Amino acid sequence: MRYAAINPLDWKLVEGEYRLLMKSKPPAGVGCEFSGTVEALGSGVAAPAIGTAVVGYIDPSARPPGALQQFVVASAREVQTVDAADLEAACTLPVAGISALQMCRLAEVKSGQRVLVHGAAGGVGSFAVQVAKMLGGRVTATSSRANQAVLEALGVEARIDYTTQKVATWGGPFNAVLDCSSTLGAADIGTLLSSGGHYVRTLPAMPSLLLDPLLNALRPVKKHTLRLKANADDLRTLLAWLRRGRIRPLITQRFAFADAVAALELSKSGREHGKLVVQVA
């Protein structure tokens, strides 16, 4: 292990949330996305070769997480090779990067569409802005007042301070709303979305998780909850974009392995923006 990235999902799993959906039942390991170097190969495994730099994802719906440790056992299918120089940046892609890509896919983001990214200064949100722009979307983004400079650096068309500006003034209707904070309510969605538009939230909530797929056929707007799926093709796409400089992770704080708990606490506080990365070795 070289690096592990921290996501809000990690502290939620530590505290026992989503225990019916995930394999993480406390006490359990911590961390789902990682990068490092292949140390050994299991029986019958030929690649990637020992010494190869890789990035990977532990799917907590399939097995308990555990990226915050010195060694990780992973299936060869769970990792992708990466340039050694990109190990730190790459560790932010398997959760936050793929989440952003799959949110844009659920929302059917197309060139010329107006896209709202709510919570755009966060790890997923900052990637969502970049992916939506690459797909040709015209992006409006929200953050707190403290993080408006982050939105400016991301190059969005319009910036919203969600702490002071009412939803009705955010410039809707939009073709797609990517709710990376999972805090918008039904009235907000009705105000923000155009007919035929798509709303996507990052975190599951009952009963919408079960009802939305059934009701979408009857609604003028479509509502979705992201259910992150490990996808080798998506990860390869993101790595290619990273190598070409078309996306970049917003890494805002780095922690030593001994301070990993502080990273979890900061994530829980909601005061962080961008990605938090722990250097394991």
Can you offer a commentary on this structure?
The protein has 281 residues and is α/β, with parallel strands linked by helices. It has two domains: 3-92 and 249-279, Medium-chain alcohol dehydrogenases, catalytic domain (Quinone Oxidoreductase, Chain A, domain 1); 96-225, NAD(P)-binding Rossmann-like Domain (Rossmann fold). The protein has nine helices and twelve strands. The protein has helices at residues 8-14, 87-90, 93-106, 123-134, 148-154, 186-192, 208-215, 232-243, 260-269, and strands at 3-6, 33-37, 53-57, 79-81, 114-118, 138-143, 158-161, 174-179, 193-201, 222-225, 251-256, 275-279. Strands 4-3-2-1-12-11 form a six-stranded mixed sheet. Strands 7-6-5-8-9-10 form a six-stranded parallel sheet. Strand 6, helix 5 (148-154) and strand 7 (158-161) form a beta-alpha-beta unit. Helix 1 packs across helix 9 (260-269), helix 3 crosses helix 4 (123-134) and helix 3 packs across helix 8 (232-243). The longest helix has 14 residues, at 93-106. The protein is globular. The chain starts with a strand and ends with a strand. The mean pLDDT is 92.
Explain briefly what this protein structure is:
This protein is α/β, with parallel strands linked by helices and 281 residues long. The chain has helices spanning 8-14, 87-90, 93-106, 123-134, 148-154, 186-192, 208-215, 232-243, 260-269; strands at residues 3-6, 33-37, 53-57, 79-81, 114-118, 138-143, 158-161, 174-179, 193-201, 222-225, 251-256, 275-279.
